C-alpha cells in the first residue's frame, strides 16, 4: 500500500516460476492484478475459476499480460535479527505474449543484471515469495522511504 503513494503503477507480485531462457521471474497468482498495467494492445479477459477460500465455489478473475516497461521489484522481508528490510532491484517487464493456460494476471520481471546472479543475491538478501512490482526506476525513491522510516534496504541492481 505504501508503494501506491510513491508511484501509481504498482502491483502485487508472486514469484511463480523462473524463465531461465529469458532470464526473468514469472509473476502469477490467484487473480490479483492492477488492470492499469495490462497490455493496451490486448483485451482483459474474465474467467470463471474455482475458489477454495470462503463459502463460494467459483469466482471471476481478470486475465491479462502485463505491459512491457521499465520496472522496480521490491520485497519486504525480515533479516536474521528480526528487523524489517526491503530488497529492491530494477529491471523490466519484457515484451511477451500471454502464456497459454494462464488465465490470471501475469508478467515477467527481468532484472538489470545477470539472472542467475540476481537469484543468488536475492536469496542471500532474504528475499521472499511475495513482493511488489512498480513501473519506473523507483529504487532510489524506495531507498529514501526506507531511510526515513528506519527500515533496512538492500538494492541488488
The count of domains is 1
User: What is the share of helical residues?
Assistant: 10-25%
> What is the class in the CATH system?
Alpha Beta
What is the second-level CATH architecture? Answer: Alpha-Beta Barrel
The structural class is alpha+beta
DSSP summary, beta strand count: 9
Strand content: 35-45%
Largest sheet: 6 strands, antiparallel, barrel
**CATH fold name:** L-fucose Isomerase, Chain A, domain 3
Corresponding CATH superfamily: L-fucose/L-arabinose isomerase, C-terminal
Low-confidence stretches: none
The whole-number mean of residue pLDDT values reads 92
Measured between the Cα atoms of the first and last residue, the distance is 23 Å
Radius of gyration: 16 Å
Overall geometry comes to globular
The largest beta-sheet arranges its strands as 1-2-7-6-5-8
- What's the order of the H and E elements? HEEEEEEEHEHE
Number of helices: 3
Amino acid at each position: 500500500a505504501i508503494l501506491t503513494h510513491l508511484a501509481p503503477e504498482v502491483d502485487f507480485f508472486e514469484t511463480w516460476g523462473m524463465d531461465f531462457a529469458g532470464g526473468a521471474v514469472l509473476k502469477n497468482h490467484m487473480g490479483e492484478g492492477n488492470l492499469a498495467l495490462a497490455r493496451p494492445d490486448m483485451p482483459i479477459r474474465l474467467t470463471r475459476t474455482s475458489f477454495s477460500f470462503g463459502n463460494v465455489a467459483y469466482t471471476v478473475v481478470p486475465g491479462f499480460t502485463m505491459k512491457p516497461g521499465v520496472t522496480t521489484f521490491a520485497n519486504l522481508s525480515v533479516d536474521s535479527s528480526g528487523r524489517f528490510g526491503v530488497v529492491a532491484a530494477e529491471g523490466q517487464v519484457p515484451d511477451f505474449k500471454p502464456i497459454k493456460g494462464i488465465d490470471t494476471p501475469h508478467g515477467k520481471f527481468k532484472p538489470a543484471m545477470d539472472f542467475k546472479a540476481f537469484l543468488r543475491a536475492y536469496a542471500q538478501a532474504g528475499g521472499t515469495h511475495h513482493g511488489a512490482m512498480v513501473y519506473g526506476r523507483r529504487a532510489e525513491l524506495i531507498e529514501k522511504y526506507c531511510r526515513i522510516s528506519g527500515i533496512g534496504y538492500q538494492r541488488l541492481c
